[in-house]
Amino acid sequence: MHTLTPTQRLKWRKRAVSVALNSAQNLLMPALNIMISALVIRLASRELWGQFVSALITAQLIAHVLAWGNKEYLLRHFSKHPNSIASAFQAVFIPRLTLFLAICPILLIVDGGILLILWIFPLFIAQSFEVMVVFRRHFAVAVILEMMLTVGMLGALLTSETITQNLLFTVFIVSAWVRGGVYAWRYRMNLILISPMDTIYRVPTSEMEKGEKHEIIPTASPLSKLERGFRGEVFINNLAYFRLALPFFLLGLSGMLASRIDLYTLSIMAEKSDVASYQVVINLLLYVQAGANFILIPFVKTLYRLDSHAIRKIAGRLFLFGCVAIPPLILLLRLLVGWVYELSYSDLFWVMGGLFALPIFGYLPLIHRLYGQNAQRFVLWVNIVGAVINGVLNVIFIPSMGITGALFASAICQWGMLGAYILRN
């Protein structure tokens, strides 16, 4: 029987800790929104939280657009060119900052636009540095920061005499500035312009010791034109980033719309109290869906090396696990929502919730298989078509079925996406 060496055990422990901390970081933000929504609904009203949710999802959507796939794009670049991290970061940061400045005049003519600008800018800063957290594996710093912000935000709401829209905006905006400020200070060296000769081929020490002469040659990278542009040569080249990172941006945006188009539609068509009620449950259901991803995270690299038969077998087993695990989880969520939020929903609503959460357990391994085949475009089109169909179904079902209709439409689209991935694989 093969046993791991102490070095291998240490390596696997470090990987496990990184996975756990990264998962915790990704869960803390939605968990914070769930806790704050519970406080506002219990201490104030559903209408108040529903009004704030409209501003919340607007700020998050705009911040997502401003991110423009920078994390995924830079992670790939950093992996290939680790000696040009600072210049590459700047080459991506400045065009996105220009985009933010370009939309500010539009936001100013919108009701509450100044508050949105004050909120979105620190979100933009924090998102810019998320790639550094992931690449450097500074997950512990991120988790500690999020925990401190969670305590601070909840404390501010609990100690206030009354909860108002202004208080909610203040709490979220201050939190965003603290997060963005901490990340900017932690990775401030990446904001400093450096010499054009910042990236070189490093000569092995063993060869240097031989006394051989080696020419230092600047490394070439996909961002070289962008980097030169920021040093004043050709500024227009910097705009090429939006084209280069477009696939990452579209993939992320389409996935976000496919999972949130129901909430966006409800915020336009339904009463604010219904928006608040739906947002509470959909966030919890997205947590259930995230379970499939957490199960697969340790095995993603292995998935890319498996053949179609093995991937289908894994997908089938994960789907079967979802069939067993989701019903008791839905019952638990029903009890939790009734106890914490004092909200009740129909049996049909919760059935739709289970049907909404289940399909991803079947198609997530198939998505990773497509990524391994460089077939991201298919995933993109499935997301786009799913978002469009979901939006249309929401417009049809919401007037007659309310929030149950929104969840029904989302469940239909999730099963349609599962069918598409099964046919493709």
Helix content: over 70%
Number of helices: 18
What would you report as the Rg, rounded to the nearest angstrom?
A: 23 Å
Distance N terminus to C terminus? 36 Å
Overall morphology: globular
Number of E-type strands: 0
Structural class: mainly alpha
Could you list the spans in which at least 5 consecutive residues all have pLDDT below 50?
Answer: 193-222, 227-237
**Which band does the percent of strand residues land in?**
under 5%
Would you list the SSEs in sequence order as H and E?
HHHHHHHHHHHHHHHHHH
Tell me, rounded to a whole number, the average pLDDT.
80
Task: List the topology elements.
Layout: H1 6-43, H2 46-67, H3 70-80, H4 85-108, H5 113-136, H6 139-158, H7 165-186, H8 205-209, H9 224-230, H10 240-244, H11 246-269, H12 272-296, H13 300-303, H14 308-341, H15 347-357, H16 360-372, H17 376-401, H18 403-424
Helix pairs in contact: 1-2, 1-6, 1-12, 2-5, 2-11, 2-12, 3-4, 3-5, 4-5, 4-9, 5-7, 6-7, 11-17, 11-18, 12-14, 12-15, 12-16, 14-15, 14-16, 15-18, 16-18, 17-18
Description:
The structure is a single chain. By secondary structure, this protein is mostly helical. Helices cover 79% and strands 0% of the residues. It contains 18 helices and no strands. The protein has helices spanning 6-43, 46-67, 70-80, 85-108, 113-136, 139-158, 165-186, 205-209, 224-230, 240-244, 246-269, 272-296, 300-303, 308-341, 347-357, 360-372, 376-401, 403-424. It is globular and about 55 Å long. The chain starts with 5 loop residues before the first helix and ends with a helix. Residues 193-222 and 227-237 have low confidence and may be disordered.
